[in-house]
Design brief:
By secondary structure, the protein is an alpha/beta fold. The protein has one domain (about 5-165, about 255-330): Aldolase class I (TIM Barrel). The chain has helices at about 50-60, 80-85, 105-115, 130-135, 140-150, 175-180, 200-205, 210-220, 290-305; strands spanning about 15-20, 65-70, 95-100, 120, 160-165, 185-190, 225, 235-240, 245-250, 265, 270-275, 280-285. α3 (about 105-115) packs parallel to α5 (about 140-150). The mean pLDDT is about 90. The structure holds S-adenosylmethionine and iron/sulfur cluster. The site of iron/sulfur cluster has 13 residues, from loops.
């Protein structure tokens, strides 16, 4: 039995995030520019067989949980076939999807039957016009239908990811929290991260997540820390007293959780990224077909995984110890 995927800081890696495409049907303001994105040609993307091979090897060495992401994973044709292939790999216990959910309702049954176990839906505003502004054209009705579809097929608790941005959606904190009162929904507020492009506006839009707890209290809602752990996340979880659902805070910038990082990332073009933030990448393609070679690559990636990212240094314009990635979030998968 393998000793598992352990890095130089004794962190065990049992979780792989797989980006299946860098393309997307939306253009969220914090993720992609409105125009001018260049996408990988389809022949550069790992095929479903290649992704399955990588996962089979990693599952032999302790990976148990997978997440499909992108770009938008549901724009990759027949992605439910990939879910079925991955669900058949011995050792894989959990296959989650992070999606903008515009296309989810139409595929909910197929994905569930293929073996999808959980879903995270990105939804940054509950107001139709504002949602369209943030996503540059998205139709919120489609997302709301997808939330109902996720319920119908039994993918609960449904997680809703909200990237909080000052002056854009921070006045909706309480509206999102109210969603948790009557339903088994987990709303997760995520700090806006400075990833992959020099967004001068980032600091102005950054909101520390303590604001969520202050808002909740300020509106007279009592909450308690929730001991339940949902999935693999680094989220700090809370529940408004008496609520069916819960809410979580994910603060990668102000209070990073690198010491418990259990994740590796595989980009759509076949690069292992040991850390979301830094530029280090390890291309799996030349090593496919040879498990021993692939494992050497993974151990090299783990050996070079840094102890922590340094996003917070960007708040103070301080210099950083390595080179940050130039990939955008849509080219990594979040
Ligand atoms: N298209 C899918 C979606 O939006 O859920 C999956 C890919 S998207 C890159 C994954 C997650 O990253 C989403 O929840 C999105 O909100 C988040 N994200 C993108 N850019 C971000 C940024 N600069 N800071 C924080 N989160 C970001
Ligand atoms: Fe697309 Fe997701 Fe990026 Fe929005 S956050 S542009 S939905 S990849």
């Amino acid at each position: 039995m393998s000793a598992g995927l352990v890095d130089s800081f004794n962190r065990i890696h049992d979780y792989l995030r797989i980006s299946v495409t860098d393309r997307c049907n939306l253009r969220c303001v914090y993720c992609m520019p409105e125009e001018g994105m260049e996408f990988e040609p389809s022949e550069k993307l790992l095929t479903f067989d290649e992704i399955t091979e990588v996962v089979r090897v990693l599952a032999n060495h302790g990976v148990r949980k997978l997440r499909l992401t992108g770009g938008e994973p549901l724009v990759r044709k027949n992605v439910e076939q990939l879910v079925a292939m991955l669900a058949n790999i011995p050792g894989i216990e959990d296959i989650a999807l992070t999606t903008n959910a515009i296309y989810f309702a139409a595929k909910a049954d197929q994905l569930k039957q293929a073996g999808l176990t959980r879903i995270n839906i990105s939804l940054d505003s509950l107001q139709a016009e504002r949602f369209a502004m943030i996503t540059r054209g998205g139709n919120i009705e489609k997302v709301l239908q997808s939330i109902e579809a996720a319920y119908r097929v039994g993918l609960y608790p449904i997680k809703i990811n909200v990237v909080l941005m000052k002056g854009i959606n921070d006045d909706e904190i309480m509206d999102f929290l109210r969603l948790t009162l009557d339903r088994d929904i987990q709303v997760r507020f995520i700090e806006y991260m400075p990833i992959g492009h020099d967004d001068q506006g980032w600091k102005n839009k950054y909101v520390p997540l303590s604001t969520v707890l202050e808002t909740c209290e300020g509106q007279g809602y009592m909450f308690e820390e929730s001991a339940e752990v949902y999935g693999n996340g680094p989220s700090q979880n809370y529940r408004i007293k008496g609520a069916q659902g819960s809410f979580g805070l994910i603060h990668p910038v102000s209070n990073h959780f690198c010491q418990t990082c259990n994740r590796l990332r595989l980009t759509a073009d076949g690069n292992i990224k040991p850390c979301l933030y830094w530029s280090d990448e390890f291309n799996v393609r030349p090593h496919l077909g040879n498990e021993e070679d692939l494992m050497k690559l993974f151990y090299r990636a783990l050996g070079q995984k840094p102890e922590t990212h340094e996003m917070a240094l960007k708040l103070t314009n301080s210099s950083q110890s390595h080179t940050p990635t130039i990939r955008r979030m849509s080219q990594i998968g979040g």
